[in-house]
Amino acid sequence: MRPDTPAENVDHATEAARLERTAGLYPEDAETLLLRAAAHLELSGDRPAATTLYDRLLASADELDNPALVRALKASNLWEYGHEAEARAIIEGIRAAAPRDPAPWVIVAEALESHDELEAAAKVFTEAAHLLLEPSDEPPAATRPLLHGRHRVRRMLALPHDDWDTLADTLHTSPVPLDELHDPKRVWSLGSDNPAELEAEISRLRAELGAYREALSRPFPVAVLHWPAPELAELLSAYPALSSEYPSHAEHLATIESSLRELSASGTANLGIVTGTVPSYEAFAASEGTSPTDAALLPQYATTLAARGRAVAWPPGRGAGCWCGTGGSYGECHGL
Hints:
About 60% of the residues lie in helices and about 5% in strands. It is built from 16 helices and 3 strands. It has helices at about 10-25, 30-45, 45-60, 65-80, 85-95, 100-115, 120-130, 145-155, 165-170, 180, 185-190, 195-215, 230-240, 250-265, 280-290, 295-305, and strands spanning about 220-225, 270-275, 310-315.
């Protein structure tokens, strides 16, 4: 499916089957591909089949990149077709495990919210915020849905603003303030006979839709290609012509960080890093009918890896390890 395919034109069952076949061809990307397939099955209405895929991933002998995310998606899906008790048990397990990735927290909190468990949803959002964020820090893009979701739920509960809500307001860039977007009385205005009220609500909805479109405009990150030292040595040994692209490994790492910082300073959002391997690169070159010595192939390879879900978000979160793989924290390594 092309990223610009209108949602109403997607055959979700067919797309899920295609993604399952692709997962068989690229086992190293099976987790990402099968999660996408499960999402299409949920959209098609076949929620039991989606659960089967989640169970398949969780039972896999291969170690998952993000098992908490798979469990959270499974819980959300189960609740939607009547398995509330099992969903609640999974959610409590995720909370006890306290994953450092914000995505599972957002999914379980939104599952609670969608079933009118507003107090519980607010508590989950708050637990995640205290675990993953500091009010004085600039939160990474991946954590901002926590703040926006927490703001929304607390607004519906008529709770006063706190520091996290203020931070969410600060990060929000839409012309319509979060307090208006999350106003529980908005739905009432849709039944109004007052043209001015309806026009104001249409304006707010357009702003909200614009924010969603901006977030979805690029389905995968703008990614920069990273070669670990052994892979780069093997690459240059096999294809010396690429030495002009990579004078040294240290310079390669410095170029990655400087390039990402320049992209970020220019306003480019959704940035990431993909890690290459020589066999994968050679296979990609063969699929493109091009020699691996063609330097123009490198950014295409990076984009393809990102499209297959191999990108790691940049910059790393607070206290996270550096993307370069040395084992040190990002703040003490390339984040200096």
